[in-house]
TrEMBL record:
Assigned EC number: 1.14.17.4
Alphabetical list of InterPro entries matching this protein: DIOX_N (IPR026992), IPNS-like_FE2OG_OXY (IPR044861), IPNS-like_sf (IPR027443), Oxoglu/Fe-dep_dioxygenase_dom (IPR005123), Plant_2OG-oxidoreductases (IPR050295)
Record lineage: Eukaryota, Viridiplantae, Streptophyta, Embryophyta, Tracheophyta
Broad EC category: oxidoreductase
Annotated GO MF terms: 1-aminocyclopropane-1-carboxylate oxidase activity; L-ascorbic acid binding; metal ion binding
Name of the protein described by the UniProt record: aminocyclopropanecarboxylate oxidase
Annotated family: Belongs to the iron/ascorbate-dependent oxidoreductase family.
Keywords of this entry: Ethylene biosynthesis, Iron, Metal-binding, Oxidoreductase, Vitamin C
Source organism: Protea cynaroides
GO terms for biological process, alphabetical: cellular response to fatty acid; ethylene biosynthetic process
Fe2OG dioxygenase domain sequence ranges: 196-296
Coiled-coil features, chain-numbered ranges: none
Length: 373
């Protein structure tokens, strides 16, 4: 069979027929990466958007590079064509917005809005302008215990969470591949004795008359592993801190925003960092935000992957002949202990949390922490 190579063949057809992509496509891939490099040099990079579907095409390599770049330099990226159907996302959005109107809006007005800005002229530092409830999916679901949820909403959120769980595990393996860790390493590292903790924080950020006085959500890094966010496609507000500047995470229809939590910073020995982010309240429009947290199990023992520590040491010795160990040393601890500490220190820098866990490390019994899945 003769296959004609043109730029118009679907990209995965090249793979299927074991053909080299035409020069035009190869050049396009190179251009993509070189373009990001140039943008970085000029401090003009744009927020990374990754088309996950391209993993099944000739562009797998460049897509993996983009994920790597996003993990190393942003701690955040936005996924399109991630495998969760648009129809399901539309249902989640519609039912979340209806639920907010029906069961949450009045409560927000009474509990937050009426108190927060009463006669206040200075910035409020201990409150957020958000309306929130939590769903837990793993290790056991609490969905049936949450009051005020309609049956169809419960059902749709369950299906959505199942899709996100699969996506999280797929992403963890992509991270393993980029980090040179064996497939399944991160999933196992999160597993503990009962598997990962997985939950969803459903939030709405209502319009705020004085956004200069109160944040939608104050700046923080996330404590856990991988965070998957379905955010409003019209009302913006999420920002991350990059090179000392707050950068908007652009709303985009049917996308899922991913960010990395403190545990991934520890396990990767700082190769990937959790990044500060915050939500700015808006004067117009209510912003929907559905953040799902794929975290270690409560008794999982978290510590830097030995191969990444060894690698880091090699890199250090290569650049630092004086052998001054300038590298950060991360602690080893039980995830639940970290969460207890985080509860009181969420809106502070992560470094003192890591330091505090080092002091606690001596009390951890360090038998083989990784349970085989
Ligand atoms: O609402 C958002 O976009 C982000 C929420 C968030 O950062 C969090 O709940 O940790
Ligand atoms: Fe967060």
């Amino acid at each position: 069979m003769q296959v004609i190579q043109t730029l118009f063949l679907p990209l995965n057809a090249y793979k299927l027929h074991q053909l080299d992509p035409p020069l035009g496509i190869r050049k396009e891939i190179k251009r993509d990466l070189a373009g990001r490099e140039r943008e970085r040099e000029r401090g003009m990079e744009s927020f990374p958007v990754i088309n996950l579907e391209k993993l099944d095409s000739e562009e797998r390599g460049v897509t993996m590079e983009l994920i790597k770049d996003a993990c190393e330099n942003w701690g955040f990226f936005e996924l399109v064509n991630h495998g969760i159907s648009h129809e399901l996302m539309d249902k989640v959005e519609k039912l979340t917005k209806e639920h907010y109107k029906k069961s949450m809006e009045q409560r927000f007005k009474e509990l937050v809005a009426s108190k927060a800005l009463e006669g206040v002229e200075t910035e409020i530092n201990d409150m957020d302008w958000e309306s929130t409830f939590y769903l837990r999916h793993l290790p056991t679901s609490n969905m049936s215990e949450i009051p005020d949820l309609e049956d169809d909403y419960r059902k749709v959120m369950k299906e959505f969470a199942e899709g996100l769980e699969k996506l999280a595990e797929q992403l963890l393996d992509l991270l393993c591949e980029n980090l040179g860790l064996e497939k399944g390493y991160l999933k196992k590292a999160f597993y503990g004795s009962k598997g990962p903790t997985f939950g969803t924080k459903v939030s709405n950020y209502p319009p705020c008359p004085r956004p200069e006085l109160i944040k939608g959500l104050r700046a923080h890094t996330d404590a856990g592993g991988l965070i998957l966010l379905f955010q409003d496609d019209k009302v913006s507000g999420l920002q991350l801190l990059k090179d000392g500047q707050w950068v908007d995470v652009p709303p985009m229809c049917h996308s899922i925003v991913i960010n990395l939590g403190d545990q991934l910073e520890v396990i990767t020995n700082g190769k990937y960092k959790s990044v500060m982010h915050r939500v700015i309240a808006q004067t117009d429009g209510t912003r929907m935000s559905i953040a799902s947290f794929y975290n270690p199990g409560s008794d999982a023992v978290i510590y830097p992957a030995p191969t990444l520590v060894a690698k880091n040491k090699e890199d250090q010795t290569a650049v630092d002949s004086d052998d001054q160990l300038s590298q950060v040393v991360y602690p080893k601890f039980v995830f639940e202990d970290y969460m207890k500490l985080y509860a009181g220190l969420k809106f502070q820098a992560k470094e003192p949390r890591f330091e505090a866990m080092k002091t606690m490390a001596s009390t951890v019994t360090l038998s083989d922490p990784i349970v085989t899945v």
